Amino acid sequence: MGKLHHIIIAGGGAAGLELATLLGRKLGRRGVAEITLIDSSRTHIWKPLLHEIAAGTLDSSEDELEYLAQARWNHFRYRLGRVVGLDRERREVLLAPTLDDKGEEIISERRFGYDTLVFAVGSLSNDFGIPGVQKHCLFLDSTEQAELFQQNLLNSMLRAHTQAKPIKPGQLDVAIVGAGATGVELAAQLHHVTRLVSAYGLDTIDPAKDIKLHIIEAGSHILPALPLSLSNAAMRELHRLGVAVHVNQRVVEVNEQGIVSASGIIIPAAIKVWAAGIKAPAFLKNIAGLETNRIDQLVVKRNLQCTRDENIFAIGDCAACPMDDMGNNVPPRAQAAHQQASTLFKTLVRRIRGRSPLDFTYRDFGSLVAMGKYSTVGNLMGGLAGSMMISGSVARLVYLMLYKMHQATLYGWSRAVLISLLHFLRKGIDPQVKLH
After folding, report:
1. How far apart are CA 300 and CA 295, in angstroms?
2. Which residues pair with 319 in a beta bridge?
3. What is the DSSP track for 44-102?
């Protein structure tokens, strides 16, 4: 028996993990190919949930998936590590040493050979080189960062509750830079959470008086991916919640006191969150001579192949994939990652059989923004119906179904439904917000 075709998937986010799971069930189980997933984390969380972890309305330990277990159940291999280099001539990826919390080496530097390589390493927040962002802002790119934000928020409220002096103006204020879905969803969740935490005993804090939430946006309106009517509906909801929204305010500096805009406005805040713009991980920039764009995304053809190597593909936020003939790329959304994983799965099965790759066609099913318990707004696209605006409970149900589709791909529908049932049953015994 000859050597098995080895497919390496670098990155275990939504796109990479779904692809590894599908390939493992189809090719790995039958011994047709060897599938390896590489990620620097031991667990997976669906990225659109990170704002809920940051707010404390979701406990990551309840929703996270263990890569090792998923690999065992779905016939692929998982390797802990971070890809930092690529040797295209030898068809090898280079992994950095893995260190523990004390900086001691657990796993030394390694190389893995591949026949087909897929980059699915996602994206990071883009600070655009603005002074002070890295030093003074928190980010929501990973579970660890989201949990750090939640700890900072809870600690600041505990400190204010127990201090002998009165709460100073701005001591508990939160400023969120970026009014996309993450920023708006986080603001709505924080409004709910700060009131919950106060109700759990931190009664010296009056959220309406002591905590001010800000959203700062460089553009003329919030939620630019949504139609203006839905953006306006979300804006009205934020105003109703008392969230201060600052539009047409381009940030030029972040310091310890707050956010400084190009117009000279200074927005004071004790906790500052950066949720404006994305870029691919820096190690991809011109890696091994592959073509990348200005935000370090790998440039791929319509069939998701890198432009300079037919053995390397890229999907998800780290890929600059053409969407049309006018120079537009597929947007960095969870639904795009899911669709690309499905298409590339079919392509790689065909590749094993010596057939040509399939072109990827993005279908926009709309956008949804969940504003905590208060509202959900969005639009559904497609078919003969065109675009349909939805809000309220219907929109919330559709929003939840997006996550259920991700879970169904990973676990199957029966387990996805069982997980939902268990979460529903736990609601009666768990606090509504994480308090540790």
Report:
1. 14
2. 298
3. E--GGGHHHHHHTSS-HHHH-EEHHHHHHHHT-EEEE--EEEEETTTTEEEEPPEE-TT
Q: E strands within 269-306?
A: 271-274, 278-279, 298-299, 305-306
Count Cβ atoms within 10 A of the Cβ of residue 73 and give its class: 0-12 exposed, 13-18 middle, 19 or more buried.
middle
Nearest to 319 by CA among 349, 289, 340, 338: 340
Predicted confidence (pLDDT) per residue in 28-61, tens digit: 999 999 999 999 999 999 898 898 899 888 888 7
Q: Where are the alpha helices (DSSP H) in 112-180?
A: 133-136, 143-162
Of 34, 54, 70, residue with least CA distance to 411: 70
Check: pTM over 0.85? Answer yes or no: yes
Burial environment of residue 428 by CB neighbours within 10 A (0 to 12, 13 to 18, 19 or more): exposed
Nearest by Cα to 36 from 54, 14, 11, 57: 11
Per residue in 320-330, pLDDT (tens digit) is 999 987 889 99
> DSSP 3-state helix, strand, coil percentages of the chain (rounded to 5)?
35, 25, 40
417/356 Cα distance (integer angstroms)? 37
CB neighbour burial string for 25-52, b if at least 16 within 10 angstroms, e if fewer: bbbbeeeebbbbbbbbeebbbbbbbbbb
H-run or E-run covering 195: helix 181-199
Angle, CA 278 vertex, CA 99 and CA 391 arms, to 5°: 120
In this predicted model, what pLDDT tens digit does every residue of 385-404 receive, in sequence order?
445 566 555 666 666 777 78
With beta carbons less than 8 A apart as the criterion, state whether 177 and 259 touch: yes
The domains found in the chain, sorted by start residue, are 5-123+280-352 (3.50.50.60), 133-274 (3.50.50.60), 366-426 (no CATH)
